[in-house]
Design a protein that fits this description.
single chain; 2 helices; about 15% helix; alpha/beta
Amino acid sequence: MTAMDLTIHQAYLPHDDPDAAMAFYRDTLGIPFLFQAPGLAFFQAGEVRLMLGLPENDSQKFSSIVYFRVDDIESAYQELKTRGVEFTHEPRLIHRGRTADLWLAAFFDPDRNPLALMSEVPRRD
């Protein structure tokens, strides 16, 4: 591996309530739980480890959008709705590509970190 062979191994999301965050990611989203450390919880989301933790200070409250790739976005959307996830919108077409269309459905975790389901659906035309 060279310095430019960058791959994401771990992503961090800040949380004010570790117990609520852990329950949401483990029980509601069904992401496999790995382990806990003081103020931290770790999950295995595909090839990326997701780290949830308490912010070290008030200025550390930030977030990026985490996209969870699914094969069937409509089924995943319906399943998560039955588990109590409130989406900001239904799955919708974001981009029509040459060979696949990109679909997204956005939602938030209990600390308002933005999350989304994404699916690349092969074109049929």
